Amino acid sequence: MKQEYVIGFSQCIGSDLWRKNMLEEMRMELSLQPGARLIYKDADGNSKTQIEQVKQMLEQHIDLLMISPNEAQPLTPIVEEAYKKGIPVIIIDRKTSSELYTAYVGADNYQIGKMAGEYIGSTLKARGQVIEIMGLPGSSPTIERQRGFADGIKNFKGIEIRTQVYGDWLKVNAEAELLKIQPQLKIASVIFAHNDVMASGARKIINQLQLNQAIKIIGVDALPGKGAGLEMIGNGILDASVLYPTGGKEAISLAFKILSKAPFSKENNLGSLVIDHTNVALMKLQWDKIRNQQTDIERQQSLLNEQKILFKDQQTILNITIITLVLAVVLGGLAFYALVENRKINKNLAANNQEILSQRNQLIEMSEKAKFATEAKLNFFTNISHEFRTPLTLILSPLEDLLQNEKIKTAAGSNLKLIHKNAFRLLRLINQLIEYRKIEHGKMNIHASPNNLVEFIKDISDSFQHNARKNNIDLRFSTVQPELVAWFDPNKLDKVIFNLLSNALKFTGVNGMIRVSIKNGDGWIHIEVEDNGPGMSDDEISRIFEHFYQVENGSAKGSGLGLSLSKELMLLHHGDITVESIKGKGTKFTVNLLPGDGHFSEEEKNQILRDKDELYEQAKIYTTDLDEPQETNGSDLVSPLREQSVLIVEDNTDLRNYLKRKLSTQYEIFTANSAEEGINAAYQEVPDLIISDVVLPGMSGRELTEKLKSDFRTSHIPIILLTAQGSIEQQIHGIESMADAYLTKPFNYDYLLANTKNLLKGRELLRAHYISDIGSSGKPQVSKSLDRKFLNDFAGIVEENLGNEDFTVDEISKTIGISRVQLYRKVKALLDCSITDYILNRRLKKASYLLINENCTIAEITYRVGFASPNYFSTVFKAKYGVTPSEYKKQA
Ligand code: FRU
Q1: Of 124 and 314, which is predicted with more confidence?
Q2: What is the 3-state secondary structure of 252-307?
Q3: Residue-number span of the structural domain to which 502 is assigned
Q4: Is the same domain home to 131 and 21?
Q5: Are 496 and 602 members of one domain?
Q6: N or C: which end of the chain has fewer CB within 10 A?
Q7: Which of the two residues, 702 and 51, has the higher pLDDT score?
Q8: Pocket test residue of 221, 232, 242, 270 for ligand 1, highest count of atoms within 8 A of CB
Q9: Are residues 842 and 719 in the same domain?
């Protein structure tokens, strides 16, 4: 942006017409040359005031100072100060008494005085005395005009400057001074005033005193305008005036030159001339013309300004319009692009939506199908369950007949009982499944009737007493009231209570305690079944009523349906069943019934006569399942000592006992009902083979296998895993766990036996290698690195100690780091001979080698292979090789 200059203008006095003209000229010029602002100060003829005003302007940081000093001397220092500060100074009209200024604008006052003097002398041809009315003493025009005037007039003889007065540039002062010199006035022929206003004062006094009318009065300035110099010449008030231009216009042009660093001249003298009646008309004409032109210029100027403003406005509007247009085009482009993109996105979205919709429909269809398939499967399952009941009944009835027969019972009693118990178990599961499906389909109706709840619960709990006593479980029923009539469906509530008690008995260990009680009073009737069994974790509690959820607890496992069914049955009663349990402490189930019959609809209240047989049937179903056949103890069996032993790890007592009974005819049997027990038994007994279930409470059969196979005390033992999980992946997983064989349930016993025999036979090959002679051909058959390492270690220790007569089995077990029994069993299992036999055999083998290959005496050899005496050595050697050592050596 172009810089705007600040020009300070200090005027000595602003009230007279001449100086008003000067200011007007300046303003006009400024309006033609924009880019500067004028600060104007009027000192009103007071030099002190003017000094102060200049100071103020300097403080305001003006770019240029213009000054017309009131008096030369007093104003000199402040002007010099400004100049020294670097502010350009233009002196106008009056001067200071110093040369320190930038430029001067004004007419040459000496010339003006001289022109006046010469005009008086030559043109007026005046003679006689002259009165000079001077300006302000000390102001430069006064001094210079006075000097010029004196010089101009001195050449004319007969004319002299008789009197000089100071009018201070003012009319009134001039008049006052003239009145003081009336005698001189009377004889004077010419009055020269330093300006027109003082000259007009002189005319006034002449007229007033009615003095010599022919007296010539000459002034300075010759200003145009009303009452000014030109007019006064025209109407004869003044005889002549020396033109003194104000220089306002020139001062401003000069200021712009200086500020814009254009070349300029320091002294700018304005031209002058004398105006009298001969040229005043022309001058006036000129002035009027100039005035008119000036007015025109001003008008043009203001028009131009208006146009400028209009142009500026239009420019702004145009700019805004262009910007708006560009923006509109850009935005339009963007909008179009967005529209195209939007269309694309919408198209994609629509396609995606369509795809999602069709996928959703497919999913719905699939889930419908899946639902239908599940439903069909469950229906099939339910139907087939119904079908199972007839064959089961047909198994159970003849079976019960067979069990009545003493002869058969002796021959096959245990097998028959096993069948009997499991057939009942199957029946119970099937019944539960059917009932659950009935509820699910809303086909189960409740038939609530008033019954004595105390008697009802007592009967059920009594039917468990027999089983409880067998395990020394303290089962007690307690109630405060001897009779409590409540509304319930006996054929449904019995299943709930049977199920709870059956569970309690299953989970409560030997010597445990079960409490059945009835409580009421808080608006509910509570039947509580509490045991001190293993209890449940919070997670188990939260899931216990989910169907098919099974709590794994010790050796007992539920079907996962009983509690879920019980819950549904209780909801049919508008009641509930809840559970509280603490892990390790016990569990309490509470069946909640509402008293009275208000909660049952008329349809639900329907007395169905309680069939005592039904209760008996239920009792049989729920309690037969609990019959645990006595553990068939190995010692109970009159079994001869077996060569090989088998460890059975199985948590199902029936299956464990069944396998034990079957396998004990050929093997010594150890049993365990958890993996932990199984591992302990394996270390303790070092069996020849292990048969283990995969799903066991706590540690699994697979983990047991991994642990035993990576321990070199037991790594040689073949392991057969049994499981109900029969998928190929699971079988592979089983084999990967280092098991030697993997059989799925239900398995065929003969197949299991064949596997057992096969694996035990496999051990023979291993033995063959280690008990064969050193250097015998054939690669070791031992595939298990741990077993190979064991045998190598073992053989190495023996080899090292062949010469040690006092070498014992204890030393070997200590060096290898296993117990004597484990060592014995392991060597027996792997090499099928005793450790002593093995050592003896190695000694004799080495002896035979030494006899043939080294030239040693018999005594020496006896010593080197660790025999106490040569005699004993000979006896043993002969027993093995049929010849004495010396005979053997000779034969070689
Ligand atoms: C105006 C004036 C003029 C004169 C000039 C001298 O103030 O008196 O009449 O010519 O000043 O500075």
Answers
A1: 314
A2: HHHHHHHHCCCCCCCEEEECCCEEECCCHHHHHHHHHHHHHHHHHHHHHHHHHHHH
A3: 449-626
A4: no
A5: yes
A6: N
A7: 51
A8: 221
A9: no
